[in-house]
Write a structure and sequence with these properties.
The protein is 36% helix and 40% strand. It is α+β, with helices and mostly antiparallel strands. It has a 5-stranded mixed beta sheet. The radius of gyration is 15 Å and the shape is globular. This is Ester cyclase.
């Protein structure tokens, strides 16, 4: 089960985050998904998750890639340490394109049920990356 769940998370990272594939998102994210790490005031459901990839990361970063650095799985949870990289070529969080390389470090935990994401907890370096882009 752990190997299957790790493969589901790797597929999500490649197909949904890297490729922004809505069909794969529909397949891999449960209707009752809860993002426990959603920012205050943001949608903690599945559409809020899609919004992050489709309306924040992809418009702001070209050549977006996800590198899975480590994965640990136990029972129905998978913990992943990963890095999202790209070039700041569009507006992200109100910051005009700088052309700079961007690297966002992430550690997340996902609970899988019936082959789908049902819960997420995570921490990432996006706030510090945005602060660095703002400061020039």
């Amino acid at each position: 089960m752990s190997a299957v769940n790790k493969a589901i998370v790797r597929r999500f990272n490649q197909k949904v985050i890297e490729n922004c594939d809505r069909h794969e998102f529909e397949v891999l994210v449960a209707q009752d998904f809860i993002n426990h790490s959603a920012a205050a005031g943001q949608d903690g459901g599945r559409e809020g998750l899609w919004h992050t990839f489709h309306n924040v990361l992809h418009p702001g970063l070209s050549d977006l890639q996800v590198e899975v650095l480590d994965q640990v799985a136990e029972d129905d949870k998978v913990t992943t340490r990963k890095r999202i990289t790209g070039r700041h070529s569009g507006v992200i969080a109100g910051i005009q394109a700088t052309g700079r390389a961007v690297s966002i470090d992430i550690i997340d935990i996902v609970r899988i049920r019936n082959g789908q994401y049902v819960e997420h907890w995570g921490v990432n370096s996006l706030p510090s990356v945005l602060a660095a882009l703002r400061s020039g």
